[in-house]
């Protein structure tokens, strides 16, 4: 599954490079989105959130609840990151 990561402009972080592993964390207590999935780089800096478009964040949120996944940066383009998620 390939997903967009939004909100990069709101955080200060070392930009992940292509093929770098990122960490996905559910944020059920997020006041703006109960299905929020935050994305962190290898330095444990928040870089953004999985996009809410087409309820992609909800699908990833549920996937993280059920099983372990790995996530890898595909590319970073103009304030948006594309991440590939696969079952671990």
TrEMBL record:
Domain of life of the source: Bacteria
Keywords annotated in UniProt: Hydrolase, Membrane, Metal-binding, Transmembrane, Transmembrane helix
Transferase in keyword set: no
Gene Ontology molecular-function annotations: hydrolase activity, acting on acid anhydrides, in phosphorus-containing anhydrides; nucleic acid binding; zinc ion binding
Transmembrane segments: 69-87
Coiled-coil regions listed in the entry: none
Protein name: HIRAN domain-containing protein
């Amino acid at each position: 599954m390939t997903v967009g990561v939004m909100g990069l402009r709101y955080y200060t972080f070392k930009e992940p490079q292509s093929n770098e592993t990122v960490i996905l964390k559910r944020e059920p207590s997020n006041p703006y989105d109960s299905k929020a999935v935050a994305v962190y780089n290898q330095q444990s800096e928040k870089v953004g959130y999985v996009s809410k478009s087409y309820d992609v964040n909800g699908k990833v949120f549920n996937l993280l609840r059920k099983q372990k996944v790995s996530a890898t940066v595909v590319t970073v383009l103009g304030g948006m990151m594309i991440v590939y998620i696969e079952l671990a």
